[in-house]
Amino acid sequence: MLYPRESSRKYTSLASPAWEAIAGQVSATGHRTRNAVQCRKKMNDLIRSARSELDHTRRERSQIGGGTANILPLTKLEEDAAELAGDRDRPCGEGTCVDSPVQFLVTDNPQDVNSGRFSDVSLVFLLHISLVSSYTLLCYYLEWSPYRFKDIMFYPENIDPCLCTHLIYSHANTSDDISQWADEPMYKSFNDLKDENKNLKTLLGFRGWNFATRRFSSLAAKQETRATFINASIIFLRKHRFDGLDLDWRFPANRGNSSHQKWHFTILIKELMEAFKTEAESSGRDRLLLTAPVAVNKMDVDAGYDIAEVSQCLDFISLMTFNFHGVWNKFTGHNSPLYRGSADRGIKMYFNIDYILKYWRDKGAPSEKLLVAFPAYGNTYTLNTSQTGVGAPVSGGGQPGPYTHRPGFLAYHEICPFLENATIKLIDEQKVPYAFKGDQWVGYDNRQSFTTKAQWVKDNNFGGAVVWALNLDDYDGTRCDEGFSPLTNTLKSILGIDGSGCEQSPEMPEPCSKSTTKATIKFWS
Questions:
Q1: Of all residues in the chain, what percent are helix, strand and coil, respectively (each to 5)?
Q2: Which of 44, 343, 349, 424 is 20 to 30 Å from the Cα of 513, by its Cα?
Q3: Which residue from 50, 171, 108, 73 is spatially nearest to 524, judged by alpha carbons?
């Protein structure tokens, strides 16, 4: 395990010299960085380096037979640690970030922390106070499921408040005027979840696929209509205790609409963030968060987004990495493949998670802001020949499920019963499964494919995962025999979401209220 100590001069023989370099940079960060936001980013980068070095140490131990059982993954600081440590606009050297050196030691003995070998550490850059997961797990709750999916009775009070780091209330209201939305009992139940998890953040989803992109463009085209929407949004979010807004424009310049929408989206995002900052400064409250789900079709991305510009003004960017293939293709294909398939040609070679995440990153989006969407559903087909593999011709969508009642679509909790007596195959090159039974075919995800993809997220230093959606997972654990919300819990486990806001450890100090806090802190996930 990793523990903080005052000196980086002594390490166990298995700790690489790189630890000292990383520790030294951590110590100096607070005096080289001008504000807490920049400071947090630098600290996150440094602790990512520490994670890489820890993996190297693990491999060395394994090779010499030293074992790895007590060396657990190192995680970076949680997203709001810098804000909790002090005024975000105060220079780090004045106490916002690291006030004294914090270095690391590898030890196999958890008792060492109480043995007197380690001194207390003066901490101001909040380790809050065991390091929590660096990753975001943002989960959509589809408010309309009790109405659209009449047999899915899943309400806010049914959500585990410790399952995700962020929850989005995806609204069904069709009105352009957010101030007229009225669902107070649901808003209250949703935001009351924060009473059980002090670290949980909630956001309101504005619009979605069924809200025509031309209506979004009309809203964003003029300064007056933008200002009206932005002011109404702030009032609404604060009134109902949401922590931010998820701007769900699907998608700028998509579906044959004007190329001006690219600029409209950019200016709307910029003005929202500017207003959120101004409101936070005047009210003294934490700034509202701003996130957006974005396109994953390369042509839509190029047409609709100034990636470098909008990335500066969004807290998270959710790449909607599903529906890469569906019944519109007239042949079978997987909903959300990790990699390109060998038969993918032309624009189809872009239809995979690996390509599009790296494309957004290479176009200027910070990797730590990019989130990968994990669908808790599958796209289904009706086969019309004896072929059953990927690329088999189809006559249409698969039969509707018993709960979602939608052709070509099955929620995960509907897929599980379908798999009984079905033939299950792995698309090895794309790391995802499919199944068929009779003339019915489904490309879906399971716990193993979620594990593989989540590890890919970590290996590539992306920001985390998006679950679409909690209502589609086996939310009550009655249909898949895998426990409740098995897919989402898999992501929680792989990404190391620790739920520290739900139950405070006896060894965890209260958040800092002065310039320094003495604490003995364990660094494990």
A1: 35, 15, 45
A2: 44
A3: 73
Residue 87 reports pLDDT greater than 50: no
**103-106 and 166-170 beta bridge pairing:** unpaired
Which band of pLDDT confidence, cut at 50, 70 and 90, is reported for residue 334?
Answer: very high
Q: Which residue has the tokens 């399952």?
A: 163
Is the same domain home to 306 and 166? yes
How far is residue 132 CA from its own chain's centroid?
15
Asked if residue 397 belongs to a domain, the reply is no
Write out the residue range of the structural domain in which residue 332 sits: 136-375+445-495
166 and 63 assigned to the same domain: no
Reported as a single tens digit per residue, the pLDDT across 438-468 is 999 999 999 999 999 999 999 999 999 999 9
H or E element at residue 190: helix 184-191
**Does residue 366 share a domain with residue 242?**
yes
| 217 pLDDT more than 90 | no
Q: Sort 294 into a burial class: Cβ within 10 Å, 0-12 / 13-18 / 19+.
A: buried
Residue with tokens 């039974």: 437
How many angstroms separate the Cα of 433 from the Cα of each of 10, 338, 445, 447? Answer: 48, 11, 6, 10
Whether 290 has a pLDDT exceeding 70, the answer reads yes
Say whether both 246 and 183 belong to one domain: yes
Single-letter amino acid code for the residue at 128: H
**Separation between Cα atoms, residue 188 and residue 384, nearest integer Å:** 49
